Automatic annotation (TrEMBL), chain A:
Molecular function GO terms recorded: 4 iron, 4 sulfur cluster binding; metal ion binding; oxidoreductase activity
Keywords per UniProt: 4Fe-4S, Electron transport, Iron, Iron-sulfur, Metal-binding, Transport
Name of the protein described by the UniProt record: 4Fe-4S ferredoxin-type domain-containing protein
Record InterPro entries: 4Fe4S_Fe-S-bd, 4Fe4S_Fe_S_CS, Cys_rich_dom, Helical_ferredxn
One Pfam family per UniProt: Fer4_8
Domain named 4Fe-4S ferredoxin-type: residues: 39-67
SUPFAM superfamilies in alphabetical order: alpha-helical ferredoxin
PROSITE patterns: 4FE4S_FER_1, 4FE4S_FER_2
TrEMBL record, chain B:
SUPFAM superfamilies hit by this protein: Respiratory nitrate reductase 1 gamma chain
Transmembrane segments: 12-35, 72-96, 116-134, 146-165, 171-190
Keyword annotations of the record: Membrane, Transmembrane, Transmembrane helix
Name of the protein in its database record: Nitrate reductase gamma subunit
InterPro entries: NarG-like_sf
Record organism: Alkalidesulfovibrio alkalitolerans DSM 16529
Amino acid sequence: MGIETRRIEDAGLARGIERLTPDRIAETFQALLAGETGARLKTYVETCVRCGMCAPACHYCISHDGDPSYSPVGKVRQTMWELLRQGGRVEPRFLADCAQIAYTECNLCRRCMHYCPLGIDTAYIMTVVRRLCSKLGMTPMYIQDTTHSHSAVLNQMWVKDDEWTDSLQWQEDEARAEFPDLRIPLETEGVDFMYSVIAPEPKFRTQLIYQAAAIFHNAGCSWTMPATPGWDNSNMAMFSGDFEIMGRVERYHFETAQRLRVKRIVMGECGHAFRAVYDVGNRWLGWKMHPVPVVHSIEFFWELLDQGKIRIAQKQPGPVTIHDPCNVIRGRGLMDKLREVVHALYDNVVEMTPNREHNLCCCAGGGVINCGPPFKNVRIVGNKAKADQLKATGVETVIAPCHNCHGGLEDIIHHFKLGMKIKFLGDVIYANMERPAEA
Amino acid sequence: MRELYEFAVGPLAWGAFAVFFLGSIARLVAMYSLAKKKDAPFLSYMSWRYGLRSIGHWLVPFGSLGWKENPALTVVTFIFHICLIVTPIFLLAHVVLLDLYHGIEYPTLPEAVTDVMTMLVVAACIFFAARRFFNRTVRYVTSTQDWIVLAVVFLPFATGLLAYHQVGPPLTMATLHILSAELMLVAIPFTRLSHMIFGLFTRAYMGSEFGGVRHAKDW
């Protein structure tokens, strides 16, 4: 029981161990406490009465038969409490264990807050642990690579500037076979919204850009994409703990929207991106709320349907179930709009329990899937709870409006042989909306 | 023993209450100024409406997911905290003391009721101790301080019970009761019992974030 029984080889952590000494860790930890943490960390650590009520909140803990070392408070015990007790003077091996817990065994999904009578934010404590690890170069290799990518090209997946516009033009070309006058507008100033996607879209889910363009075209939207960096908003630096780079990415994002003088930013079906723009990055940059209004595509699709700009030609029979992505549900309260959109698309919707704010995490988010192949089994085995929940619905289609949720759910569906398909809202709207020819 | 009793109800009681009140205020003030200095971007989201809304939901038994999924703990926790706070304030012997020393008078609860309430606090402490020992999550995160804190809460109620039922030498029991109660008062601002002073604020902050920023429930 405990992290020492389940250590995983990771090139980034192995290098981290070689480079660090207890002195250097202590020095950085003290500086972090003095410079960045304050009353929140102090009250959380001190006020926690060690009641253990948070254990049934965490999908890792449920999936491991209640193993206390996977409980939220158990993870804090193995990391922050020990760091505080020793003033940060810990062995590099211990810090690598902290990194493994904070990066790969916590999705920062914030479900445990629904279980803590004192309102202790375990996700915040894990974020501070990640921040320490990041400052000391003790990060899993794959997630660090995404941070390097953000640093070098301002998107998560090393997409070069010309590759970005090239992908957009390619999708425009493709789509014009179906919608002859469709455009994917680039650098159009003063339009209603800038559409913002994450780097996996041009990289390997390019059809999503096609579908979004088709939906916007059909709805007669006034929109644009930027031709410059600032288009990607997935911001893995937020989760790797490199807040300086996180801030840079968000600044570019908002400034790109401001340069284009758009009325608002519409975010694609991604949860991290929304968290970075709406909750985390804006605050790091000193804005109480975001400087350009931001809507998630769940809300935007809801508007299009509500205003009759998009009509559904053929409602599908279903049955389907809805997966609530933590970052837009617990993070933005879009559970009702998500349901209204899904119910507009399908006749038969089977709810999972628990759902809405209390939904179990996909186990990919919070940077966990970005820690890459070494930790893949951790998140699959660690989310048996979600697989059981999906299986209990008895349906074959899951609607999940978030890229990370797709990644996580695909893996558990495959591993636990659930035989289910996962769809974005955009997939279903695109496939079933009234087309101009039919209108 | 008489001298010790006199000292415990006299100067020591003054001292204990002073440490409790002043210590609590000092800790709150210090924590607030630290929050203002270091957590200002988060303090600015505090909202009375959402903070109180969250506290309200969590003050209702089974009013939140956490309470719902831990039914036994919920029942014991509520009974424990209500009895813990109400019993000493409305206990006949305490009010008589207050009247005797300071001329302060107010209604009391029937002795049979406070007797049962005291027993409930003692029973709840035993439940918490058993949980700390047998529940593997709780055992995993329990440290010496958690046992000490539990004992510090248990003792004044256990000794109070014994004193009321005249078990053991009356003066010794009364003295032990007073000393342990004073120990608890002094411990509140400086141990995990400080959740008494900080708990409402952490809850209110979480409620403010969930209500005002995230537009979602936190219960």
